[in-house]
């Protein structure tokens, strides 16, 4: 609140300067005032705002600060259905108004939103609060300190904690990793006659290595004294610290298993594929889970797929959120994002109680961050800036066409893979959950998709992620491409937690 007061004083001096401008006789003073005016007006976006609108924006920021301190229990608890719909309606009016440069109307509706939303309320109140933040950020330029205040990313520690908690409580990542790992395992087993028990995985986004304990355990169960298995993972990460911590966790985990040798090589994400050594006859798997959607341009996606194709891997795994993000237009992106994240926030109510500190961490430092970035990735000069990057969510058919154009053809998921995904979701049900394996209403659902056979994880009637396999179009044999689209993965809350990891192997049987 102190920052807001300080900047209110700055804008007050601006308004006083404007009023005094007419009485200034000295041209030098006039020029100084105009220069100060231009500089301070840069804090607010390029629209021609009058004094009344400036005041409304300051008032809106103050109201936001008050909202962050509200205890929803004292305020009255969960909103009624009708009020929830009203919040969504206000969001749509705000977004449309900003898109049409009707700033007064946008500010008025955002003000009403901040009076009725809460980060500790029901799923509608919570998701509306983060969308309101994303919209108010669009009223400001990146030079504004208020923009940084709203868009400030979490610390590395906060981001890791949020990711870990989300991984524990939701089947989202669990389902994705589970499906991809099963496909990698099946590809490896098909080549056992000539791969000498060697498996090399290149992971383009290591994400703390949470995906790999299940694969390590599954491989170890197939290993014997006379038929040892070697797993080598080359993982790309954002920072050296992340790579070192990931290596420590995975190496420590792998030591628990006999007849399995494990190697990890960390590579910073900014480096391209180069000098990768491929051992004779080894099964090479390329893991692109949640990676392609993070690339800023289609040319970078194409470049990555060409590099992967040149490696001639036995299998490529891809998992991406299924959506429809149209970079050129704001409103379609807003609508798609609202539907998607409303489902995600609603699903968290199935996983955690409303007063959970863990839920607040997940939504603030993981989902909420993604919402604000999604709404502002094309924001003025920030469109080509990586500070506030956004993921690229597209429909399954779009990813399918892109993969086929780079030499990959679709093949069906195995029956075992589909069965395991369904059983995994069943054992991961929560206290408020209604699990639907096919059709029905409510809760998490696993949907089977034909042509070719694939599966999708859905919350109620909204598909969250989809999983699919593709084969590389090549004269080489035993080359497959696993295309998972937002398929949540297997449960590994922490590398020390062995209980659920073992269950997944039993489910296979």
Mind explaining what this structure looks like?
This protein has 509 residues and is an alpha/beta fold. It has three domains: 1-41; 58-152 and 326-336 and 348-381, no CATH class; 164-324 and 391-508, Rossmann fold (3-Layer(aba) Sandwich). Helices cover 51% and strands 13% of the residues. The protein is built from 18 helices and ten strands. The protein has helices spanning 2-21, 27-41, 51-68, 72-75, 81-99, 103-114, 123-138, 145-151, 156-169, 171-190, 212-222, 240-254, 298-310, 330-351, 357-376, 396-404, 415-427, 499-508, and strands at residues 198-203, 229-237, 260-268, 283-287, 315-318, 408-411, 444-449, 454-459, 462-472, 480-485. Strands 1, 2, 3, 4, 5, 6, 7, 8, 9 and 10 form a ten-stranded mixed β-sheet that branches. A hairpin with a 4-residue loop joins strand 7 (444-449) and strand 8 (454-459). Helix 1 packs antiparallel against helix 2, helix 6 packs antiparallel against helix 7 and helix 7 packs antiparallel against helix 14. The radius of gyration is 25 Å and the shape is elongated. The N and C termini lie far apart (58 Å). Mean pLDDT is 77; it is low at 1-25, 379-389 and 474-509.
């Amino acid at each position: 609140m102190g920052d807001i007061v300080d900047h209110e004083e700055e804008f007050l001096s601006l308004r006083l300067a404007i009023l005094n401008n007419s009485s200034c006789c000295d041209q030098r003073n006039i020029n100084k005032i105009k220069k100060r005016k231009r500089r301070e007006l840069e804090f607010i976006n390029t629209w021609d705002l009058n004094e009344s609108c400036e005041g409304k924006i300051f008032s809106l920021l103050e109201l936001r600060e008050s909202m962050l301190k509200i205890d929803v229990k004292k305020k009255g608890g969960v909103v009624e259905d009708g009020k929830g719909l009203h919040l969504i309606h206000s969001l749509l009016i705000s977004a449309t108004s900003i898109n049409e440069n009707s700033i007064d109307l946008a500010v008025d509706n955002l003000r009403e939103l901040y009076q009725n939303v809460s980060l500790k309320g029901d799923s509608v109140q919570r998701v509306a609060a983060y969308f309101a933040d994303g919209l108010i950020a669009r009223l400001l330029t990146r030079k504004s300190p208020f923009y940084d205040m709203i868009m400030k990313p979490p610390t590395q520690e906060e981001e890791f904690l949020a990711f870990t908690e989300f991984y524990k409580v939701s089947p989202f990542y669990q389902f994705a990793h589970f499906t991809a790992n099963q496909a990698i395992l099946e590809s490896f087993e098909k080549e056992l006659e000539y791969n000498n028990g060697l498996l090399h995985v290149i992971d383009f986004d290591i994400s703390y290595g949470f995906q790999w304990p299940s694969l390590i355990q599954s491989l170890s169960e197939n290993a014997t004294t006379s038929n040892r298995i070697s797993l080598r993972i080359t993982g790309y990460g954002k920072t050296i610290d992340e790579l070192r911590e990931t290596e420590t966790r995975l190496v420590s985990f792998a030591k628990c298993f006999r007849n399995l040798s494990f190697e990890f090589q960390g590579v910073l994400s900014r480096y391209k594929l180069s000098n990768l050594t491929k051992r004779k006859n080894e099964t090479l798997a390329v893991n692109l889970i949640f990676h392609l959607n993070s690339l800023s341009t289609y040319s970078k996606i194409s470049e990555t797929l060409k590099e992967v194709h040149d490696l001639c891997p036995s299998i490529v795994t891809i998992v991406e959120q299924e959506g429809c993000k149209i970079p050129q237009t704001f409103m379609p992106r807003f609508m798609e994002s609202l539907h998607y994240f409303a489902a995600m926030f609603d699903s968290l109510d199935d996983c955690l109680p409303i007063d959970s500190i863990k839920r607040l961490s997940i939504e603030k430092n993981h989902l909420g961050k993604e919402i604000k970035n999604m709404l502002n990735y094309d924001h003025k000069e920030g469109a080509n800036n990586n500070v506030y990057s956004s993921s690229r969510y597209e429909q399954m058919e779009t990813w399918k066409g892109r993969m086929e154009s780079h030499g990959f053809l679709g093949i069906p998921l195995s029956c075992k893979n589909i069965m395991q995904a369904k059983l995994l979701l069943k054992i991961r049900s929560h206290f408020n959950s209604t699990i639907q394996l096919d059709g029905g209403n409510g809760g998490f659902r696993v949907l089977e998709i034909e042509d070719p056979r694939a599966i999708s994880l859905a919350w109620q009637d909204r598909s969250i992620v989809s999983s699919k396999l593709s084969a590389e179009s090549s004269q080489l044999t035993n080359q497959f491409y696993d295309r998972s689209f937002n398929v949540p993965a297997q449960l590994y809350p922490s590398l020390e937690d062995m209980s659920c990891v073992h269950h997944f192997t039993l489910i296979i049987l």
